[in-house]
Amino acid sequence: MRIFVSLMIVLMAVWTLFVGISAAQEGSLERQKAKIVSRVYQLTYGAEEMCKRYSPQESNQVSEAVAKFKNTYPELMKLVEESPYLDKAKKRMSILIDRMEKNPEYTECLAAYNMLQQCTDTESGKQDILKTIAELKK
Fold this sequence. Notes:
Elements: H1 2-19, H2 26-54, H3 56-72, H4 74-81, H5 86-99, H6 108-121, H7 123-137
């Protein structure tokens, strides 16, 4: 249950990050970029991996939403994939996935799916992603 709550907080942090990005000093900007890379990785590649392991019934739905997100935001995905912070994000996500336990009430896949849809299908979600891209380009 603890990991469930932690993951829900992470997923909500992704949305909050998309909505409320602000740049400050150089060091702070770099920390912000690392957070963005980590959160985008968690929402895309991480969500796919988690759902394959823990919620196979929703895995295809999440994979399709991730594919749509990647196709809708190739610039963002390229920035994430070329980021110096990507390896750290991968390691953190791998540890989180390995620590999770099978849970018949696992709902993070649905949360990830809904968040991905918000980012690709709503005007506010699209605007938030454009802000995120601008932040990573600084």
